[in-house]
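Sample entry (351 residues):
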Amino acid sequence: MSDLRVAFFDSKPYDMKSFDSENQSYGYAIKYFSEKLNPDTAPLAAGYDAVCAFVNDDLSAGTLEKLCASGVKLVALRCAGYNNIDLKVAFGKIHVARVPDYSPYAVAEHAVALMLSLNRKIHRAYYRVRDNNFSINGLLGFDMHGKTAGIIGTGKIGQVLIKILKGFGMNVVSTCPIFREDIAGEAGFSYTTMDKLYAESDIISLHCPLNTETYHLINNEAINKMKKGAMLINTGRGQLIDTAALVEGLKSGTIGFAGLDVYEEESEYFFEDKSDEIILDDILARLNTFNNVIVTSHQAFFTKEALGNISSTTMKNIAGFFKDGSIPNEICYRCGKTPCPRKDKTQSSCF
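Predicted structure, serialized as tokens:
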């Protein structure tokens, strides 16, 4: 039994089950907190060696400073995204690790589920039949075979999605900061410019990281370049889309369908039961009024396989750091990459 203490924030029953199972091999003293990590809750980590945080926890300067003052040495993110952490403040004070990938199949398959549900109006048909309404009027879809899908980002998730869509017989185009012609040739898609992707795609799916270049990538200008009635899917990061612009695009009919597993202001709502409350977020409430929009609560990752990989990688990150300081999934403080592309992997190695 180890005396290492780990504080888990924003914990849900499925987190506890998964990590308790994984912890049988480690024997760490784990304390689960249902509260999200933020400057107000950071003092709960006093006396702990590490904290485990999730995608909507607030790891801004105020939180990090309090964690450091409490003696916390490691922030182990149980997610891939890290736009919620101030790496400049963390530099030289506290180490940060993440789970760079857990199941590209889980996210890609959820993106396809959104596409199919929106296209064939499955969400509307389900409620009709439950109400003994067997009319199919208004449920007309389209053959995905022969249509064009535009995939923004060809990392692991994007590549899996492309293979699935090629199986439908779709024409796939993509754009990415680095054109991997070897991957394109093998998977049967082609790279194009962002403007051509917008103009040609019947379905656009976002699988790029959130950074200064991609913040509000989908805005009024981008939407106005899209094919009339295009379907937009986002299982990446909420802030890739300017949601106010999306609402206007839906109202004008420029956007024909939208499937969102993430939302730019999701932290107050997603993963929580708000069924007894009034939604005070006017934009989120407006999205829920469109019958051609499906919003899911950041569940694309949520498969048994993905949860197992998340808990396994997170615990390995913690074990490696406290054993000999080696963290294969540490986020470089300077370039934000995992791992840093330079072989020496020092904190300034990317410069």
